[in-house]
TrEMBL record:
Coiled-coil ranges from the UniProt annotation: none
Entry's Gene Ontology molecular function annotations: L-glutamate gamma-semialdehyde dehydrogenase activity
UniProt cross-references to SUPFAM superfamilies, sorted A to Z: ALDH-like
Keywords (A to Z) from UniProt: NAD, Oxidoreductase
Biological processes annotated in GO: L-proline catabolic process to L-glutamate
Catalytic activity: L-glutamate 5-semialdehyde + NAD(+) + H2O = L-glutamate + NADH + 2 H(+)
Pathway recorded for this protein: Amino-acid degradation; L-proline degradation into L-glutamate; L-glutamate from L-proline: step 2/2
EC number, as in UniProt: 1.2.1.88
PANTHER family: DELTA-1-PYRROLINE-5-CARBOXYLATE DEHYDROGENASE 1, ISOFORM A-RELATED (PTHR42862), DELTA-1-PYRROLINE-5-CARBOXYLATE DEHYDROGENASE 2, ISOFORM A-RELATED (PTHR42862:SF1)
Catalytic residues identified in the record: 285
Protein name, UniProt field: L-glutamate gamma-semialdehyde dehydrogenase
Length: 521
């Protein structure tokens, strides 16, 4: 039986395409509506709304989305605080029942939500379907895991007292009101995952969606609302980060934060959370500058497939995207020829169409950044092997389209160290696997990494690589493709601040604090 994951999405059954097309038609017919915030169990329209246009075609207005203010943020926090005692006391069986209902609703709406994601973010249909299904799986996996962990309530041995019974217990309890701040690139999954984790462990939640992608958060809020969560347990805000992001982080009711985004912003939030009257938890996933090493013993066809998928999937706009490639000189020319062929074969255009795999970047700023980086490559001595163009003519005129780019760059080029978050892959020749691993580790970030080589080389790579998520000889993606229940996802060094990965054995415990209980009878 077919199960959609990021590994299996490259060969879907035909029915998936026909159902997506039908949903896309339905969603397009409803574009332009006004969308509300969700506070204390009610959908609430802010005083101001902002039109969101599709990066595929700027003439297409997806909807008008409420712009929350600091006052709205305070209302949401107050509602979450008021709902906390009852939600925390709700039996685990009831909490998981409600959250499994959320998963069920997401799956029932998977095609409609995916169509909206494709239009809003610019990802292709299979990427959008994958993200939506991943979100449903987050809710299910975290419910299952919380139950398997016995709600983190464990009986310990009694004290060895001769004349009394002294019972001991370790109990994990929720922190309180948890703030979730999400990025634009996976606005449904990277909202739904931490929201599910915070809720199943007994916290209440205020979600702040990315400014570029307010529709995704609203669609998630619809699923949580319709699942019947009590008022105030989950709240959703959309709007500019400057207006509400700081208000949420600094709010006196904020007990913990999950943030996904850039290193600079993540570090700022982590520092804010550690300061104050007492430290508060922050789970920050802060991007990657991900590397892949290809040795002379690699299967080059497999390597080329995985490299293209990881470097250019979602337009390179994901923290796990491949951006640094190190190839043993003996096979470099052959591999690059294969990469050029595969890049040339990528369908570029409206990603809601089945023939197009590579859609637009998310915004005008991203398109400008792409042009600036390409110019930096050229002036810095790099050779553009493929791509390097901003597309502005014909069918591309109204969107933010660029070409997937491959550049051979000198060792001292500054962009080896900068997370561009765009479809730009830099590569260079190396003499050995050891040199490749040394170069891969020479980064302040350590999210994902990949290798193509022999069994012995893979073992050596895994022993030495400094990254939280690793892949070996994987055609489905050299550095991308983690799925809840299959691959935990979290970074080392500047890519993450907790050392714990999303959907791992250790993730849910971060949303709780331990209390030791001793009772003498």
């Amino acid at each position: 039986m077919y199960k959609l994951t990021y590994s299996t999405m490259f060969d879907p059954p035909p029915e998936m395409h026909s159902r997506f097309d039908a949903a896309l038609k339905e969603v397009r017919s409803q574009l332009g509506a006004k969308h509300a915030l969700h506070i204390d169990g009610e959908d609430v329209h802010a005083q101001q709304h902002r039109d969101k246009r599709s990066p595929i075609d700027r003439d297409v207005v997806l909807g008008a989305f409420s712009q929350a203010t600091a006052a709205d943020a305070d209302r949401a926090m107050q509602a979450a605080k008021a709902a906390l005692p009852k939600w925390r006391a709700t039996p685990v069986a009831e909490r998981t029942r409600l959250l499994r209902k959320v998963a069920q609703l997401i799956e029932e709406r998977v095609y409609q939500i995916s169509a909206a994601l494709a239009l809003e973010v610019g990802k292709n249909r299979m990427e959008a379907l994958g993200e939506t299904q991943e979100t449903a799986d987050f809710f299910t996996v975290y419910c299952d895991d919380f139950e398997k962990q016995q709600s983190f309530d464990h009986v310990l041995p009694n004290d060895p007292l001769p004349n009394a019974v002294s019972r001991n217990r370790s109990v994990m309890k929720p922190y309180g009101v948890w703030v979730v701040i999400t990025p634009f690139n996976f606005p449904f999954a990277l909202a739904g995952g931490p929201v599910a984790a915070a809720l199943v462990t007994g916290n209440t939640v205020v979600l702040k969606g990315a400014s570029e992608t307010p529709w995704a958060g609203r669609l998630l809020a619809d699923c949580l609302r319709d699942a019947g969560l009590p008022p105030g347990v989950f709240n959703y805000l959309s709007g500019p980060s400057a207006a509400i992001g700081d208000a949420l982080i600094q709010h006196p009711h904020t007990a913990g934060v999950t943030f996904t985004g850039s290193y600079d912003v993540g570090m700022k939030i982590a520092r804010q959370m550690i300061q104050g009257r007492y430290p508060r938890p922050c789970i920050a996933e802060m991007g990657g500058k991900n590397a892949c090493v290809v040795t002379a013993k690699a299967d080059l066809e497999r390597a080329a497939a995985g490299i293209v998928r990881s470097a250019y999937g979602m337009g390179g706009q994901k923290c796990s995207a491949l951006s640094r490639l190190y190839v043993e000189d003996a096979v470099a020319d052959e591999l690059v020829a294969k990469l050029r062929s595969k890049i040339a074969a990528l369908g570029i255009g409206d990603p809601t169409r089945v023939e197009n795999w590579f859609g637009p970047v998310v915004s005008e700023k991203a398109q400008r950044d792409y042009a600036r980086y390409v110019e930096q490559l050229r002036t810095g001595g790099a050779t553009i092997v493929a791509g390097g163009e901003v597309l502005t003519q014909g069918a591309f005129a109204n969107g933010y389209f660029v070409t997937p780019t491959l550049a051979e760059a000198p060792a001292d080029h500054a962009l080896w160290r900068e997370e561009m978050f765009l479809p730009i892959l830099m590569w260079r020749r190396i003499r050995s696997l050891d040199e490749g691993v040394d170069l891969a580790n020479d980064s302040d970030l350590g999210l994902t990494a990949g290798v193509y080589g022999s069994d012995e080389e893979v073992k050596s790579f895994l022993d030495r690589i400094e990254a939280g998520v690793t892949y070996a000889n994987r055609p489905q993606g050299a550095t991308t493709g983690a799925w809840p229940g299959y691959q935990p996802f979290g970074g080392w060094k500047g890519s993450g601040n907790t050392g714990k990965a999303i959907a791992s054995f250790y993730y849910l415990a971060q949303y709780m604090r331990e209390q030791s209980q001793t009772i003498v009878e």
